[in-house]
Every structure is written in C-alpha cells, then in structure tokens.
UniProtKB/TrEMBL annotation:
Domain AMP-dependent ligase C-terminal residues, every copy: 370-461
Superkingdom of source: Bacteria
Protein name from the UniProt record: Phenylacetate--CoA ligase family protein
Keywords assigned by UniProt, alphabetized: Ligase
Pfam family, one: AMP-binding_C_2
GO molecular function per UniProt: ligase activity
SUPFAM superfamilies: Acetyl-CoA synthetase-like (SSF56801)
Length: 466
C-alpha cells in the first residue's frame, strides 16, 4: 500500500528534479486520488514513525507523553492517536524560555538548521521556528505540489506580496514556486510606498500567480484604482492567500475576484505547521480548502476533548506533521474554528475539505450578551452593502454593567446623506448577529488598512479588567 504512494518515506525524500507530466492535473496522481481509507492506513503507520522519532529525539515529547502514559508503539488506531495530548502555543513558549532559543522540541541537530523564523511577538513573547535544511527542501516540494494543484506551472511568474521577514507565509510561497521552476518575484510588503510600487511592478510584469493576505489584496486594488489602474489589467489568473480568514468569506472572495478577475484560492494552517499550504483549494476545487492528508495530518476536533468530530460538524483543527524532522508538531492545537466534510471533489482528489475555510479563532470570537459573534460575519455582511467604503472596526466595551458593540464602517455616501445607510446597515447587522449594535459611519479611506493581517476588533473590556 505505502509502496505505491509516490516517494512515501520517513524521513521524507523527494527527487528534486521531478516534475509531473505537463498534462497531469496531479503532481502525485496516486497519493492525491487514492482510496482515502487506504491513505489513512498508511498515515497511521507514519504517525507512529513520527512519534517514535520525536520520542527518541526530544525531551519535550518524551516528558509529555510519559506523563500521559502514551507510547508511540501503542498508536495502532486513530482512536489511540486521539488520546495523544495536544501541544499548545503556551507549552512551546515555556519550552523555549527554559531551553532557548528553540525549545526542547527541536528534534534535529542544531547544525542542520537552515532557516529561523518566528512569530511577530505583538501579543506576547515571540516563538522561534527552526527549520532544517532537508525539511526546507521537503517543504518546497510539498508547496510546489500544491501550487501545481492550483494550476501554477513551470515558467509562470509568481508575485509574492507579503512580508519577507520572520513571517513564514512569504518564504513558504517562495520556496514552493522556486521548486516548481517558476519565475518568482519576491516583492514583499510593508515598507513605505511599497503598495504603489507593487501596482507598477504588477502592471509591468503581468504575473500569472499572486500570493498575499486577503486584506492586502483589497488594499492593493484600492491603491491601483486610486492611480487610475484597473487591477484586471495585471492579468492575474491565480491568487492564493493565507494568514487570515478572507478567501473563503463569500463577500471578501467575490470582492477580490471582481477586482482582479482571477481565481481565488484559500490556503494555510499555521506557521509552526510549515508546509503550511497543506490545507489548500485547487484549480478544480477552488472553493474551501482540501486537507492534503499525506503531507500533514489534519483533524477537526471537539475543542474540549480534542477527539475528532464527525464529518459535517464544526470543531477546531489539530495538526500533525508527517515529514518534519526539525520541530515536528504532533497534535498542535490551532484554536481556530472550521467545519469539515468528506465528499467527492470535482478535481478528483480524495481529501476531506473545509467547505467554509477556517472562519475564525476561538479567542477572536466576540462573546457578547450570551451570543457569539464572528468578526468574519460582520466583514461578509458589510461588503454586500452598497455604499460601504471598504474598511471597518468593531469596538466592544462595557458601559456600566452592559456590554456594548459598536461597528464603525466607512461609507462612500457624502456627509449629510448617510441616514438611510446608517439606519439600514445598523438594523441589518443587528438582526444578522442577534445582538444590539451601535452603528456609526465614517468617511471612506479614513480607517487604517492592513499591510499584513487585519486587526479590526478592539475589545476594550480586556483593558478595563487589567
Ligand atoms: C483563515 C499560515 C500562515 C503562514 O500564512 C500564517 O498566517 O501563519 P501564522 O502567522 O502562524 O498564523 C496562523 C493563524 O492565522 C491561524 O491559526 C489562523 O487563525 C490564521 N490563518 C492563517 N491562514 C488562514 C487563517 N485563517 N483562513 C486561512 N487561510
């Protein structure tokens, strides 16, 4: 079974010169279209191998699993695997504080480290990611394979418009596109005036593919339009996104498609999980995200028990590396929210799918007066309202003993002619969300645009608690 799966080894080994038949929609036809039960059986054997590797090379996993009474050799069923305790971000931070800089879950020799990346550290101590040289090659191969699935081909120009720094998103996209023998334009993002220059370079180089965060693509479209350039003139065909919800939020997706005239592809798990593109749509199945289960094992779990929920249900993704030898993550809890299904995919791949993408983080969900509000619902709603100016903010505050939610949205309606917009949008939001909303409008282009990931929620209740 495993033997038929193309290049199925641990540690992973890929022929760096391999490219599929140009007419094949698949990079590895067998792995991608095989009976999912057979694939899962091969993955189960692999999970044991990865766990044995991690147990023998890291104090972190040995201590954690010994305490939980888990032995790699006992993982002979998925039920057993679901008993393996999840890894949390807090544990990783603690491990790195006690064993700087990479923590005691670094499983390879430090001489093998090829790249160091990390979290931005805006919400706490930064975490460092150490990626081995061989792992980097394997990541590039995996991402090339997924890009092939999106319809990107050797010789295509790929424009990467995300931060080239600690952020792994841009580097992962770059590595994959290079391995795919594309022409890569590692443009970056975030410097002063860079978006206007991106417009010039896109118009000049006419790339086929483009990578960024979804909010940045919308920002770019606004800047192009303000310079009198229709973003459709860039001729982009495939735009792939990670980093935040957006590409699977219907109105955001439509806004990007309408602005650029390209196919929008959603992808991305977490930086720790690089190859993070293991959840990704394809050219033939462009909506939602497929879970490329032979690259990373994706489970959608109950957020309390961390047992998988049945297909069709909502839960939180838990991820396990199948090929990483440096800092392998084994049951990493994401704290995100999604729903998964297993059905026939038009592209022929037999992977499960997240039909609505990853629609929010458990900790970003706003709990207000007994209701749960997803910020993406507000975004989706506002983008469908005529006269919406393109950006908004959600402020939650406590007035007396009551929580109050204020949505402040930009509008293109001139001052003095906003009454109907304010009344209708405010009441529309209120009935959608089921909570009282104070709605305010402000002039277009006055709220801050994200150069990276958007931060639209200001929860002032947390400040008052401190
Ligand atoms: C909905 C995956 C990557 C490298 O682009 C990234 O942003 O990794 P990072 O910085 O570790 O952030 C991971 C978090 O971003 C996830 O837990 C999730 O909350 C969010 N995220 C990333 N990609 C998506 C996403 N949320 N859809 C996505 N496609």
């Amino acid at each position: 079974m495993g033997a038929q799966m193309e290049n199925w080894h641990f540690p992973a080994r890929y022929d760096q010169s391999y490219l599929p038949d140009p007419d094949s929609p698949y990079w590895f036809p067998h792995r991608e279209t095989m009976d999912p039960q057979e694939r899962d059986a091969a993955v189960l054997v692999r999970l044991r191998e990865v766990m044995e590797y991690a147990y023998s090379t890291s104090t972190f996993y040995r201590t954690k699993w010994d305490a939980a009474g888990v032995k790699p050799a006992d993982i002979t069923s998925f039920e057993a695997f679901e008993q393996v305790p999840v890894v949390t971000k807090a544990e990783m931070r603690e491990s790195q504080a006690n064993h700087p800089p990479f923590g005691d879950y670094l499983c390879c020799d430090s001489s093998e480290i090829h790249h160091i990346h990390g979290t931005s550290g805006t919400t706490g101590a930064p975490t460092a990611f150490a990626i081995g040289r061989r792992d980097w090659e394997v990541i590039a191969d995996n991402h090339a394979r997924i890009l092939w699935g999106m319809g990107v081909r050797p010789g295509d120009t790929v424009f990467v418009a995300a931060l080239f720094s600690l952020y792994l998103g841009s580097w992962g996209a770059l590595a994959g596109a290079e391995r795919l023998h594309c022409r890569v334009l590692p443009f970056g993002a975030g410097a002063q005036g860079m978006t206007a220059r991106a417009v010039t370079w896109l118009a000049r180089t006419k790339p086929k593919a483009f990578y960024a965060t979804p909010s940045y693509a919308l920002r770019l479209a606004e800047v192009a339009e303000s310079e009198g350039i229709d973003p459709r003139e860039f001729g982009l065909q495939v735009m792939f996104f990670s980093g935040e919800p957006g590409a699977s939020v219907p109105a955001v997706r439509k806004a990007i498609e309408d602005a650029f005239g390209a196919t929008v592809i959603d992808c991305g798990t977490m930086a720790e999980m690089t190859p993070f593109m293991s959840a990704s749509a394809t050219a033939g199945t462009p909506d939602g995200m497929l879970l490329w289960q032979d690259i990373v094992w994706h489970e959608v779990c109950d957020p309390d028990s961390f047992r998988t929920v049945p297909y069709g249900s909502e839960g939180t993704p838990v991820y396990t590396h199948l090929e990483r030898t440096s800092q392998p993550m084994i049951r990493l809890a994401s704290n995100d929210l999604t729903r998964w299904v297993l059905e026939d995919n038009p592209c022929g791949r037999t992977y499960p799918k997240l039909p609505d993408g990853v629609y929010g983080r458990i900790d970003d969900m706003i709990h207000i007066r007994g209701e749960n509000v997803y910020p993406t619902e507000v975004d989706n709603y506002l983008r469908g309202v005529s006269g919406y100016g393109g950006e908004h903010q959600i402020v939650v505050r406590r007035t007396g003993s009551m929580d109050e939610m204020i949505v402040r949205a930009e509008t293109t309606h001139p001052a003095g002619q906003r009454d109907a917009f304010e009344r209708d949008t405010g009441s529309g939001l209120q009935s959608l969300l089921g909570v009282r909303v104070t709605f305010e409008s402000v002039d277009a282009n006055t709220l801050e645009r994200a150069e990276h990931k958007s931060r639209r929620v200001v929860d002032e209740r947390e400040h008052t608690k401190r």
